[in-house]
Amino acid sequence: MGNRNFKESRAPEDDRTSFSSDKPPRVYLSLGTSFNSEVDKFQGVINALIELGYPLTVACGGSQDLFDKLNKNKAENVDIQLFPNQRQLLTKMDIYFCHGGASSVYEAMYFRVPVLMLPQVGDQHANTTIMVEHKAG
Question: Which residue of 8, 47, 92, 135 has the fewest CB atoms within a 10 Å radius of its CB?
C-alpha cells in the first residue's frame, strides 16, 4: 500500500455530522481509476448532487476522456479535476462519495470524512458492509 505518512489530518473534535442550511456540505466524488470510463455513472451522481445544491469536486482518476466529457456541461458549483491530490482534498471536504476501495476507506477514516459508497467489484462490497456494520460510513 505504500507509505501512509498523512500530514494533513483533521483535529479529533472536527464535527462533520451536521450541516448548516446556509453552508451546504462540500462533496468529493471519486470512483477510483478502474471505472473512470463509465461517464453515465459519474454524470448521474453529479446530477443528483447538483440538484441538492452541494459544491462538488470530482476526481477523474487520470482519465482524460472522462475529464473532457464531464467538463463539457459542468455546473457552476462543480470542479472537475483530472488527478487531484486526494489526501489534500479530504482535509477540506464534508462528504466523500467513493467506490469503497481499501485506500479510499482508509483515507476517509484517517481524515474523518463521512463516506457514501457505491461499490463496484471485489473488496469494495465487503468494505462497504464493514463500514455500515461499524457505523463508520
Answer: 135
Q: What is the pLDDT at residue 61?
A: 86
CATH 3.40.50.2000 fits 27-133, yes or no: yes
**Looking at the DSSP assignment, which residues form a beta bridge with residue 116?**
97
- What is the pTM for the complete model shown? 0.80
CA distance 120 to 35: 8
Q: C-alpha cell of 110?
A: 484517517
**Which residues, other chains included, contact 24 with Cβ-Cβ below 8 Å and sequence gap of 6+?**
52, 53, 54, 55
CA–CA distance, 121 with 101 (Å, rounded to integer):
9
Residue ranges per structural domain of the chain: 27-133
Query: Could you tell me which of 5, 3, 29, 27 has the C-alpha nearest to residue 92?
Result: 27
The whole-number average pLDDT for the span 8-16 is 51
Q: What are phi and psi of 90, to 5 degrees?
A: -65, -25
